[in-house]
Design goal:
By secondary structure, this protein is of the alpha+beta class. It has 12 helices and 13 strands. Strands 8, 9, 10, 11, 12 and 13 form a 6-stranded antiparallel beta sheet that branches.
Length: 347
């Protein structure tokens, strides 16, 4: 495979506690799992000949300014931040700052981040464009938990803004008003955000990766296979299902190409993913999550701008299945960011 057009100076923005080591030698699988994305990105870009520097960013923008005003001036920022000041809703502000500095960056633009992070807003926009979405309602912190009569059980209760399945457990699936109130209060008090309760779609967990800006490349339809969950467990993507390697291995939870879909259904799902990206103004790379009902209706659940891109995660694996090897995938992300910046300046 050809190398990049030229070596780039790449500033990787990440969370300080996820700063990867130079080598994984001596680390356990559990330790590596925490910063696997950061390690994969940094090590792969370096192996491609790029000059890479990682910068931990927590609650100040000043380090970015200092990094670009020194002798080493980055060509592009590889953005791996998922929050800022401890809030996922603030990551858009970091990207806005990069735009003000006219510094190219990978991943999604600030407007797309804003539209996608609010699960209720993204669902309203999708529904307006006749994209199937589950019925839902929002319970704000400090307000009484009162279910609208139109919203029928079972419901799944989540954080309105957090992603990565944070706060989702078997108790998130509720079938009466008492359990609903309990779980909403849990989200308010333990997660610290408003809660969203939506109709539970009993079906398949489907993911679709999308790569690009003006021209979107839709990756193969991917599926989370729940394996043999403990008796009585509902097939939902809890925190343990998504992020606990031991739990995944124990219960044979895997992910891979969605099997048994007709060509027509596959095309429909991929077209919906593309429409959602256009509607929410997502660019760079994104993952769109669906639940596929028993009657083959793909319900839009949420959009994930800048999803996890570790080698073993859904996005990179779907890209590989589509013929894009991991180093080439990261190269595409870099040049997408550079081309977007050039388009804005007219270069």
């Amino acid at each position: 495979m050809k190398k990049s057009r030229r070596p780039l100076k790449v500033l990787v923005l990440l969370h300080p506690e996820l700063m990867p080591p130079d080598s994984i030698k001596g680390y356990s699988e559990k330790e590596i799992h925490v910063w696997k994305t950061e390690y994969d990105v940094v090590s792969t870009l370096r192996s491609r000949g790029h000059d890479v520097r990682a910068l931990g960013l927590k609650d100040e923008l000043k380090p970015i300014r200092e990094a670009i005003e020194g002798d080493w001036k980055p060509d592009i920022v590889f953005n791996l931040l998922e929050e800022f000041h401890g809030d996922v809703m603030y990551d858009q502000n970091v990207v806005s700052y990069l735009e003000l500095l006219r510094l190219p960056y990978t991943g999604c633009n600030p407007r797309g981040l804003m539209l996608a992070r609010g699960k209720a807003l993204s669902k309203k926009l999708a529904a307006y464009h006749r994209i199937p979405v589950p019925d839902f309602t929002v319970f704000s912190i400090g307000r009484r938990v009162r279910r609208p009569p139109r919203l029928a059980f079972p419901l799944i209760v989540k954080s309105l803004s957090q992603d990565a399945s944070l706060g989702i457990a078997q108790a998130s699936l509720v079938d009466n008003d008492e359990k609903l109130a309990e779980r909403v209060i849990f989200i308010h008090e333990k997660i610290g955000t408003d809660a969203i309760a939506e109709q539970f779609i009993d079906g398949r967990e489907i993911y679709v990766g999308v790569l690009g800006s003006e021209r979107l490349r839709v990756l193969p339809v991917w599926e989370l296979e729940f394996g043999d969950l403990p008796a009585g467990s509902s097939r939902i993507a809890t925190t343990r299902v998504k992020h606990d390697p031991d739990y995944q291995e124990r219960h044979r939870i895997t992910q891979g190409p969605a099997e048994g879909l007709t060509p027509e259904l596959t095309t429909r799902i991929q077209r919906l993913a593309k429409r959602i990206c256009r509607t929410l103004e997502l660019d760079g790379y994104a993952r769109i999550d669906f639940r596929l009902s028993a009657d083959n209706v793909p319900y839009f659940i949420e959009a994930n701008p800048n999803p996890e891109i570790a080698r073993i995660e859904e996005f990179a694996q779907a890209a590989l299945h589509d013929g894009i090897r991991y180093p080439a995938l990261l190269e595409r992300m870099l040049w997408l960011g550079i081309r977007r910046a050039r388009a804005k300046t007219g270069e």
